[in-house]
Amino acid sequence: MVDQAPVAVATHEPLLSYLDDATGERTDLTAQQLGAWAARSAGLLRDGCGLRPGDRVAVLLPPHWRTAAVLIGAWSVGLSVSFRPRALAGLPVLEPGADLPYDAVFVTPERLDDWLEDVPEGTHRYLVGTGPGPLSSVPPGWLDWSTEVLRHPEIAPDLTTLRPTDPASPDGTSYGEWGAVAREYAKQLDLRAGDRLLVDAAEHEQPLKWLLAPLAAGASVVLCANLDRSRLDAHVAAEQATRVL
Description:
Blueprint: E1 16-20, E2 26-29, H1 31-48, E3 56-60, H2 65-76, E4 80-82, E5 102-107, H3 109-113, E6 122-127, E7 143-144, H4 145-148, H5 175-188, E8 196-200, H6 207-217, E9 220-225, H7 232-239, E10 243-244
Parallel strand pairs: 1-9, 3-4, 3-5, 5-6, 6-7, 8-9, 8-10
Antiparallel strand pairs: 1-2
């Protein structure tokens, strides 16, 4: 986000690690590697979909390295990102234009198939799997993000000039406001440059917690999906985690 502190992680060390205790999957991304995936995502949205600053994107994805790439890519080209459109608990979506199709929607196959979920309409619709490879099947009207994103280079499109007052989410929350909230939350967690934050992905879906706050503080992140609590101490030791969320 705008005005965040630079990431204080050595270039050869992982900035974001993703672990899945259920499948054994592990992905480690340095800042450069995550930046390359974010650049591909930005190219997909701007050049592939033709989106422009202020267009609305719904990112309905769990904590995952692919989610980070989608979010950073979307914000880097000035898009307004929503995390909230869902039918759980029957809560309405309170944001401008909530009854209109989003310009792009990103969702997992599991969420798309869940009858409890009300996935919003979108002009461009992408399924984002949480497994290591491409999806085995994609329903009509949807595209596999892991395939489509590879059509775009690892070099970011021409940078969009972002102002702190530009809306980063459809409810009008600006880039500057999100940055301030991220820094404040990092302060509450006592996160500092060089820290390594281990996150239980099932307990903390809000990107503010597992992505924005750590990056604002200059910390790296270990996302643990399907966390086996009996292995928590082992994960902390193996990952050299300094904070646990």
